[in-house]
Amino acid sequence: MPWLSLTFGIGSDHIDWVSDRLLEQGALSVDVHDAGEGTSQEQPLFGEPGMPLEQFWQQAEVTVLLEENANVDEILRAVAEITGSSVLPEYRLARVMEQDWVRLTQAQFDPIRISSRLWIVPSWHELPDSSAINLRLDPGLAFGTGSHPTTRLCLTWLDQFLHPGDSVLDYGCGSGILAIAALKLGAARVMGVDIDPNAITASLDNARNNFCGTDRLSFATALSSLDSEGSGTEWLPATVVVANILANPLIMLAPVLMKALQPGGHIVLSGILDTQADEVLQVYSEWADMHIAAKEQGWVLLAGQKSIDNKP
Prior knowledge:
The chain has 312 residues and is of the alpha/beta class. The chain has helices at 15-24, 72-83, 101-106, 149-161, 177-184, 197-209, 247-259, 277-284, and strands at 3-11, 29-34, 59-67, 91-96, 112-113, 118-121, 133-136, 167-171, 189-193, 217-220, 238-244, 261-273, 288-296, 299-306. Strands 10-9-8-11-12-14-13 form a 7-stranded mixed beta sheet, with helices on both faces. A 4-stranded antiparallel beta sheet has the order 2-3-1-4, with helices on one face. A 3-stranded mixed beta sheet has the order 5-6-7, covered by helices on one side. The model has no long low-confidence stretch (mean pLDDT 88).
């Protein structure tokens, strides 16, 4: 069954009102995006816990998915009414045909080469290099397929600097990709922590799909007391703590993450924009000698070594 895709420009002051009206009039979905996306006029906007996003793009576009028999003129008149315009907005109209949406989604995810020895490969693809460490990972309930710059930055650090026998804590594990990679790269013990139960479900599924046993890899929704007996975390503090979250949570979690790291151990942080790096560096410098280890597409990876005389 075909649908209609209606796209028009809109000012930021009217986005919420127009979106609500479109849904009331039977729109199947409403997508608001930057009108300058992919051009020099693109306006990046990011929000995170503790720093809510309180603005839209100055020049936005709305794309509405409609039933094939929808009255487009009536919808455009409603938009003009809300925006106070005497004329209908300029628009683009396209027909959206029924497709194999599963195959279309899969086509967006190809194998990702992290290094000569480490690949991220969706389950529907053949292995590009059967002799490499191949992580089988599909898009799913939690963040982390290897396609985002912050994930690649962390994977590259693990590939280059993780030593066989290291113990690793992956805080904010998402899909479990970093924890699984650490285990495959030779870590002796790995624990992934995420407050989202869906992330734990996804991580356990991905661990099974990559033949990771539970004797050296575990996942939990909270980090148990480092001193509690029988908690399964007796091997903590770790020699490596990696956290790919966002800048503000990383700042708030600094005491927790550094307590979970051995003196002399390495802290690896990502999910941080260029403009946020200095603030995060300043916070963690209380415990470790920190530096910007890598950058990609406006994101940075911070790394450092905890002072030997800095007790957990």
